[in-house]
């Protein structure tokens, strides 16, 4: 057990260092922060921002002498913002996962990795933890300025709500990266890996709409596979164990399929 854990940590450190040494990773971080900051400001203080809309509704109610029910601006804003960040992540995450194994194939080191004494499970878990840690460093600044902004809300927003929403974002990222890692293990082309990952995740993102069209038991079963449905539950502050189980299932499935893919390569080389 100690040897396996040591191997996972070694792979994790190597993978994480590769991201912090990659110009592409810094470019991705810059684009992610730029777009997320833009969305944040537009949703909050833009011409159609929630603060502006709440003020207009209150003013109109006062002028007409009609009591206007209070608008929970902070809660609505947080859900909309995390929804946009989730959609943005659909484009960012395939790029982060595309080189996890495809680069190893391209450099010819995947065969060495496949025949090494390190188990394929340990390699897959280490790689996944490395890229997930890098994505988490992109998300943490968002959480900080959200908490600062929401601290001025009236009524105050419980910290558990944004924390649960960001937990959903991290779980979504882990599921996408795990599946993307499997796709990356199948090809030496990073571009192809990114495109196939994006196509798969887009399908899992909109499958809820397909499920509603199908209806019946089949539609209900398809709806449970939706990334969007379960991510939205967490961003609304709904702690649903079925959502946690779904994300965990995608994560384990991606790791399992990746290990099997590398096992097949090891068998070919033996």
Describe the structure.
This protein has 270 residues and is mainly alpha-helical. It has one domain. It is 83% helix and 0% strand. The protein contains 12 helices and no strands.
> Quick one: overall form?
globular
Query: Residue-averaged pLDDT, rounded?
Result: 82
Estimate nothing, just give the exact number of structural domains. Answer: 1
CA radius of gyration is: 21 Å
Counting helices, strands and paired strands, the structural category is: mainly alpha
Helical element count? 12
List the helices and strands and how they pair.
Layout: H1 2-20, H2 23-45, H3 50-64, H4 73-97, H5 99-107, H6 110-114, H7 120-150, H8 160-184, H9 190-214, H10 216-223, H11 227-235, H12 241-269
Helix pairs in contact: 1-7, 2-4, 4-7, 4-8, 4-9, 7-8, 7-12, 8-9, 8-11, 8-12, 9-10, 11-12
